[in-house]
Write a structure and sequence with these properties.
single chain; 91 residues; mainly alpha; 70% helix; 9% strand
Length: 91
């Protein structure tokens, strides 16, 4: 079975390739600072998204049940989710 690899050409069109040479060449020519910037941006999303989701869910539940405890619970669960994501990234 022949594995099919794909690469990007100069116009960013996807073209088929049968070897890994072009793939290795592509990564050698790319600038690592852009990849580092993308990774750091993803870390921000991994930390903020669970916290924001927990707070918004807590506000929604507080509005429907007319209580004041779900926001606190949402912050706690969101913070736990953010810490779990951070642990998973470090591991």
């Amino acid at each position: 079975m022949i594995k099919k690899y794909f690469t990007f050409d100069k116009n960013l069109n996807l073209t088929p390739s049968n070897s890994l040479k072009n793939k290795k060449k592509l990564f050698k020519n790319s600038k690592s600072k852009y990849f580092d910037l993308a990774n750091y941006t993803n870390i921000g999303y991994y930390l903020v998204t669970p916290l924001l989701f927990g707070v918004l869910l807590g506000l929604y539940l507080d509005k429907n049940f007319k209580t004041g405890t779900f926001v606190k619970l949402g912050v706690f669960v969101g913070a736990a989710g953010a810490l779990y994501n951070l642990f998973r990234l470090i591991k």
